[in-house]
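Late entry, evening session. Most of the bench is empty. Finally got around to the prediction I had been postponing all week. Sequence below, unchanged from the version circulated by S.P.
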Amino acid sequence: MNVGFIGIGIMGKPMSRNLLKEGFALTVADVNEAAVRELVQEGAKSASSPMEVARESDVIITMLPNNAIVRNVILGDNGIVHGAKPGAIVVDMSSVSPIVSKEVAAALREHGLHLLDAPVSGGEPKAIDGTLAIMVGGEEEIYKKAEPVLAAMGKDITLVGGNGCGSIAKLANQIIVNVNIAAMSEAFVLAAKSGIDVEKMYQAIRGGLAGSTVLDAKAPMVLERNFQPGGRIDINMKDLTNVMEAAEKENVPLPLTSHVLEVFQALEREGKQGLDHSGIIQYYESLTGVKVEKRK
């Protein structure tokens, strides 16, 4: 099976590598020419546009930053839709609005093409080792055809419903992850202000009900003052903006998510949007004048 991959960033590059490791013929494209050259040296073919990628591929994967870019890459003048073979499958693994996923699916359907919205969770470490959680929206028959490709990049792969449902599942994931990080930040700042050894407190609570994958992933980063992304604040801010758009459409109040989005916006105003979202703690530190880190 010939696979195309558009979007060779923090996540897309290791995902592409895992496809190559599993023996898929891979054609890649990205605005970052150096990233494309790197993958070509590892066995991929390069293409100059999404349309050209589509001409070479049975399954075309997109891993892109936002709604507008996803629309343009798939449906724009040099987009996938103009090069794809009849029956080709587009797998959008970006984190976008479910409204956009449904719109793109309908537009592709008019051209005899199929969409799976299949966003991921797990960040760069799980992208590297091929164990991403993948939430898929689309038709079951199309999902079955694309499943071997998805299995090269992920471990927990779930078809959650029709088009748009994968994107909704990702938004739910982002609520839980980012509100969890904010709760951890509040707890750590309280502990630090009280004079406790925060690292020992973390070890004490991680095996109980407060323990979580999020806690174990982000607490060590905070304690080491390592805010290199993983998951960037600006990308997560975009996701929570999509959450609030979907919530408004469904008339669902989300007060906790709304607060975390405001925290992200405050950090962006301070120029911290490129930090990992564990950097949320810096907002709470600024309110209290404490710094959470390992004791020397």
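Two things to note before I forget:
The chain is about 50% helix and 15% strand.
The first strand starts at residue 2 and ends at 6.
Will write this up properly tomorrow.
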